[in-house]
């Protein structure tokens, strides 16, 4: 809590000598009153979700210039509860706009007016869609990032969007066998069903039910279901990513159903579904969500929970809850940590591939967004820059080549060809091509000294094509561990925390290549003399890279198929 800085107390960035504020930024401040609180005197999460949705919607509409509706919300992890009398501050702004949808970032903080302390409660990302007008589908204007932070969020928004599109696909790979427990509570005992009539106060100016209001009703029935399992008052900790499948309007009867899907040692997952109908029409599925609850003891520590026994028709939900718990742990372990907190090598498997890939690409994008690079030296139009931050040394090498960007991307994507121009690559073995974007390699390098062993790296290479002209091609590299490839006696196992290429198309025939590396003990021996100005081996390597690219630019050697990219981009264009 002490590391967090109040955004309201941070001076606005200066652009051309003038104070700058994001034009899509919307702020909301609310005092928590008893009518907003639950039985514990803490702000109801349902009420907080309504405030967050309203703030984010206003930000989206400010950018779109028309009414917008909530399409989805990413995972939300609530770090702290908020008591009566505290002030809730919410800031929302559009990070990036696509064809007709946009990502809105939401930051929620709590303020104690008596002690002047503030702390972060949660950070969320919501997707909003501009409603069709009489003229047809709305084409959103692009967001123009101005600050380093805006550029970073703009770049990461594309990666988060990619992850949303394939989020549901990994559930089927993680279903585990159903384990029965003695003296378990029947899941049927936790089942809750409630109905709400949508009235004008529940709807926006377009007579559609507020997404936040629906989420609040869902949180209410989910809390009741959780109470029935533990016979105590639970605390909501996380809400998984979810999508609104259709709209609800004034006059709808909203049927809300909840049941505990599974209970673990200190947490339980509650599944909740919202359906709507009017008159005698069939039920329309509006939304489904999964919420994780804990029960805290007098010391605010999680209590041990009773186990659940699924009903015959609930075994799939029971198994899927286990899979989702595995996914949550992967996300928390891999994605939610600060870059300095992530272990160098993380075990790779199919279940966490998506999150490791996200971490790999986002780390490179964060390095690319830095603005504290210092030019160390330049030779033959190859520039070497360094940056030191949080006691970590990073470097980048920049050059231009007369080769089309896409062809440069394909030639540099296959690490097996890197030894053709990089003397530090002795051998490169393709271990596993997980899909069209992620590949695992084993790389060996010669010893950096006359008497030492050579180095061995197990690398995950993640590549991305640009979403639009303001994105580069990306090839991100990081170390992982594989049980099939343990360390060997012949080599010293090295680690790469973050490395890779950004490839920018400056014209149809000129491309800017930037290579990044976050120096680790395994990498430093190879680059220390270059950074100190005592060697020019880096310039020789990247000059050789330039010759390699130009020698192969007329050859149609594309090692990887682009079918997945075509599918994903077609899906994105329709989204």
From TrEMBL:
A Pfam family annotated for this UniProt entry: START
Keyword Mitochondrion: yes
Keyword field contains DNA repair: no
Function as written in the Swiss-Prot or TrEMBL entry: Has an acyl-CoA thioesterase activity with a preference for the long chain fatty acyl-CoA thioesters hexadecanoyl-CoA/palmitoyl-CoA and tetradecanoyl-CoA/myristoyl-CoA which are the main substrates in the mitochondrial beta-oxidation pathway.
Gene field: LOC115418414
Pathway: Lipid metabolism; fatty acid metabolism
SMART domains for the chain: START (SM00234)
Protein name in the entry: Acyl-coenzyme A thioesterase 11
Cellular-component GO terms for this entry: cytosol; mitochondrial matrix
């Amino acid at each position: 809590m002490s590391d967090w800085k109040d955004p309201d107390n941070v001076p606005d960035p200066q652009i051309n000598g003038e104070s700058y504020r994001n034009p899509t930024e919307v702020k909301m401040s609310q005092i928590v009153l008893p009518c907003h609180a639950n039985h514990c005197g803490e702000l109801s999460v349902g009420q907080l979700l309504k405030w967050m949705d309203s703030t984010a919607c206003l930000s989206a509409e400010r950018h779109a210039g028309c009414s917008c509706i909530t399409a989805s919300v990413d995972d939300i992890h609530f770090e702290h509860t908020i008591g009566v009398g505290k002030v809730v501050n919410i800031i929302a702004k559009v990070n990036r706009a696509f064809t007709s949808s946009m990502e809105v970032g939401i930051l929620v903080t709590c303020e104690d007016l008596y002690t002047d302390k503030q702390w972060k409660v949660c950070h969320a990302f919501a997707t909003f869609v501009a409603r069709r007008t009489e003229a047809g589908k709305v084409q959103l204007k692009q967001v123009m990032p101005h600050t380093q932070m805006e550029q970073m969020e703009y770049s990461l928004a594309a990666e988060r969007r990619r992850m949303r599109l394939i989020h549901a696909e990994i559930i089927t790979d993680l279903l585990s066998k159903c384990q029965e427990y003695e003296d378990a509570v029947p899941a049927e005992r936790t089942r809750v069903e409630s109905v709400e009539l949508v009235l004008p106060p529940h709807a926006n100016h377009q007579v559609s039910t507020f997404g936040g209001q629906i989420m609040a009703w869902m949180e209410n029935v989910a809390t009741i279901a959780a109470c029935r399992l533990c016979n105590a008052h639970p605390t909501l900790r996380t809400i998984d990513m979810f999508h609104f499948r259709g709209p609800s309007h004034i006059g709808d009867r909203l049927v809300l159903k909840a049941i505990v899907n599974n209970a673990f040692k200190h947490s339980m997952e509650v599944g909740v579904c919202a359906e709507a109908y009017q008159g005698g029409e069939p039920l329309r599925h509006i939304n489904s969500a999964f919420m994780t609850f804990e029960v805290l003891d007098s010391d605010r520590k999680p209590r041990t929970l009773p186990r659940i026994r699924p009903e015959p028709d609930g075994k799939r939900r029971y198994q899927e809850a286990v899979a989702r718990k595995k996914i949550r742990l992967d996300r928390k372990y891999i994605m939610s940590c600060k870059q300095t907190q992530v272990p160098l090598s993380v075990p790779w498997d199919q279940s966490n591939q998506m999150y490791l890939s996200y971490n790999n690409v986002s780390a490179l994008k964060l390095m690319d967004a830095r603005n504290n690079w210092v030019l160390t030296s330049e030779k033959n139009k190859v520039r070497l820059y360094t940056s030191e931050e949080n006691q970590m040394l990073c470097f980048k090498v920049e050059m231009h080549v007369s080769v089309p960007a896409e062809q440069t991307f394909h030639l540099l994507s296959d690490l097996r060809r890197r030894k053709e121009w990089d003397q530090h690559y002795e051998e490169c073995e393709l271990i596993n091509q997980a899909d069209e974007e992620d590949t695992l390699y084993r790389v060996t390098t010669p010893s950096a000294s006359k008497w030492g062993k050579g180095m061995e790296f197990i690398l995950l290479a993640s590549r991305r094509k640009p979403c639009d002209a303001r994105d580069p091609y990306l090839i991100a590299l990081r170390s992982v561990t594989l049980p099939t490839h343990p360390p060997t006696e012949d080599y010293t196992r090295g680690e790469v925390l973050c490395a890779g290429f950004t490839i920018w198309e400056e014209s149809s025939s000129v491309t800017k290549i930037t290579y990044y590396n976050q120096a680790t003990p395994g990498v430093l021996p190879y680059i220390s003399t270059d950074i100190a100005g005592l060697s020019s081996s880096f310039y020789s390597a990247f000059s050789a890279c330039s010759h390699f690219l130009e020698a192969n630019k007329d050859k149609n050697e594309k090692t990887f198929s682009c079918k997945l990219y075509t599918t994903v981009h077609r899906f994105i264009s329709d989204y």
